[in-house]
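Protocol step 4 of 6: structure prediction from sequence.
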Amino acid sequence: MAAEHNSQQAYTQQPYTQPPYMPQPHAQQPQPTHQFQMGGENHGPPQQWQNGFWNCCTPMNTCCLGYWCPCILFGKTQQRLVDPQLQQYETFNANCLIFLGLEYFGLWWVFQMMKRDEFRQRFNLEGSAVGDCCGAYCCPCCGLVQEEKEAIARLGRAGNTVPQQGYQKNDTMGYNPPK
């Protein structure tokens, strides 16, 4: 018992000293050599929208669809971004159903805001995340109609993705008259 008392006494008699700080070397993280941008098309300053946010009453069928069935218009626009000809379009696609489910819980605007940000980045359009949030929450119909009209303007309607330039002569074609 005396040995146990001496070991406790020796333990309590030594003052505590903090070990010196020795910084640990950290491995250097590789630095990216280029900046990633969504869509890969973002060069130069942001462009203006071709269709205004508050210009949502034309065409009337798009306006009505955005007002009474926003999930369908949302799904159609998202499908148009993947398939401009809408060959694989289904009215109740995955984006439509996700939007509809979030509408039930009052959170549609979060999904719409995220997709609008992706839309802006893809086409290098002016705007901000705050503007996307306010637009999606306060006037979702206007935002949905604007995105649909912008997608049609930038991608073409029914697959017409090349702007009309008229006839372009092909120099490799030629006509050799019969002899």
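Step 5 (inspection) to follow. Residues 29-40, 158-164 have pLDDT under 50 and may be disordered.
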